[in-house]
Sequence to fold (795 residues):
Amino acid sequence: MSVDAASLLIKVRAQAPVVHHLTNWVTIYDCANIVKAFGASPVMAHAPEEVEEMAGIASALVLNIGTLTVDFIESMKLAAASANKRGIPVVLDVCGAGATRLRDEKSFELLNERRIDIIKGNASEVARIAGKGVSTRGVDSGEVRHNLIEVAIDLARQRACTVVVTGEADIVSNGRDTYLVKNGHALMAAVVGTGCMAASAIGTFAAVERDYVKAAAAGLACYEIAAELAAVTAAGPGTFKERLFDEVYKLLPQTVAERQRIEPV
Amino acid sequence: MSVDAASLLIKVRAQAPVVHHLTNWVTIYDCANIVKAFGASPVMAHAPEEVEEMAGIASALVLNIGTLTVDFIESMKLAAASANKRGIPVVLDVCGAGATRLRDEKSFELLNERRIDIIKGNASEVARIAGKGVSTRGVDSGEVRHNLIEVAIDLARQRACTVVVTGEADIVSNGRDTYLVKNGHALMAAVVGTGCMAASAIGTFAAVERDYVKAAAAGLACYEIAAELAAVTAAGPGTFKERLFDEVYKLLPQTVAERQRIEPV
Amino acid sequence: MSVDAASLLIKVRAQAPVVHHLTNWVTIYDCANIVKAFGASPVMAHAPEEVEEMAGIASALVLNIGTLTVDFIESMKLAAASANKRGIPVVLDVCGAGATRLRDEKSFELLNERRIDIIKGNASEVARIAGKGVSTRGVDSGEVRHNLIEVAIDLARQRACTVVVTGEADIVSNGRDTYLVKNGHALMAAVVGTGCMAASAIGTFAAVERDYVKAAAAGLACYEIAAELAAVTAAGPGTFKERLFDEVYKLLPQTVAERQRIEPV
Fold:
């Protein structure tokens, strides 16, 4: 049941999977660039006329509702239908769930109408998706009043999917296997886009590993180990982010093997 | 009548206000990231179905017409109506005003149909909004043929708002109190997004200080002091921008107190 | 028939042309920022109500279909019609051509309905536009089964335009004069946006030089010499990209003259 993140990193680089995104307009560049830094091939496309075809040449689909509109969600549904038909993994970043009714409604529509393989959010977002009472403030905070690990496991079982709750220790569960990923650095919380990039990292690894709980844990660990290394020489959040791309690009499997902190629960 | 920028910086960090943006697609990341670097909480949302609700949980609203469309302006009006109702500050960056009829018309619509608390632009943009003859070339230049300080004061009185004219010395006036902010660095003009981030800085400080002329002057001063510090070690506009985020994040109130150059007119 | 890239760089800085873009949402910031780093003036505008007017104050128009929608292509057509009327150069980056039917169809619509002065793409994209069989995978790869230089020359003659095929050696041809640009660095392929920025560099130089094959070769050479310099101190793709902006901004004509590798075919 242990996760070998280093081997999956090697697999990502060897296979260079195409990762199709319909993501938010704030961090779209970062999502594409982190996928590329991992050695995979990002593609961003959202026109309803082409999303099915684009998902048809991809090995994973990443959806992020951070700057959703009604039309954009319809494109996500088309892309997800195509991904579902082909059996490639679909990651849904429920960015900002709980902040507005639209975000909640559209998150549930996507979850109910399409097969979502991996739900990813922070504590308050996932709690909302799990139907737990929670207060959200903006897109990156919120208090959670339930045991988060239980919430993740329950949601994973309820939706028959993998659930990722990002935080100081990330929770990854498919309702049966549950891991904590304890890598990462405090500077990640000081930069816009680290959460969105985490979803892209997860999608990239899920493209090469069908056990999505392992893929998600490995993707998060590799990404966060790179963050740890980037923080060593960073002078603040600006330089940290650029060095994060450097470190993801240069990340050695041996370093991953030595530093990974993926613990079964 | 003096402005204590350091105290307002402390207040921003303590309150971590949510700053809702409907901004342009070129610099949307930078706008979000500068707010976060200041210790506040950015949220970007533009769907007509959610903007009122999102403005309803924010402490300030920042609008920027840099990549406007007709629909996007309608979303801005919905968000501004919600902000007006709650009495939170609305900043309007009249990015590119004067370049096309659409930009002029939509700027005036926003100004006439909603309460805009702070109008922000460069010399040619503000002159155009003030109804003064001016030639604009692109979005970041233009000759101004009127005394800029008078233009700012007149516009502030006419619109009963605060007016910010960015430049080597920024002008901030509510028609009664007028300041020049003389911080900043020449490299700011060599990077796309420094103007948009200035509007976000102003919005962030207006979220915690109801005297908007002081908030705007303080926000600009803090942002521009960080730019001065970033320029010290930057090798050009690329590294300058990353270090700007570092310096905003690390900015000490004492440094602000020592370096602020906010002069009453 | 030799290309004097250094002189064109001086001309760009002296004239500071306005370069209007309708580009993709992933790299829109980078496209704007590279134009600014060259000393020119970027403007991004896509609303159908203003694109003709905006193209009317520009000295070049850059189109990029990377995140196309049907409506966005209609705005491109309006802008291109305005540019055609005024005789300013129109660059089309056929980003992702070959990946979906929509991209192919819309590329051909633009090429057939408007005058495109410079077609720019990677090997697989240009081969597709030239009607050659090619397999595309994502937006930045693909195998080409024809002699690329011939493909470029043929397409340039067929469309009576300049064709740019980016790669380790870039091909630039107007069907009569053909050059290889051999500057650049391997790290460019590890960062999202280097291809899009190449189109912006070409547009910037075409704004000041009516011989578009020379303009394209010079723009690419300057941009790629800056990349070579950036790579010297970069620790990976993240820091490389920031330093690329630094080096473009600081690029000395003398350095360009010494390092340019533009070879007639």
Remarks:
- The longest strand of chain B covers residues 18-22.
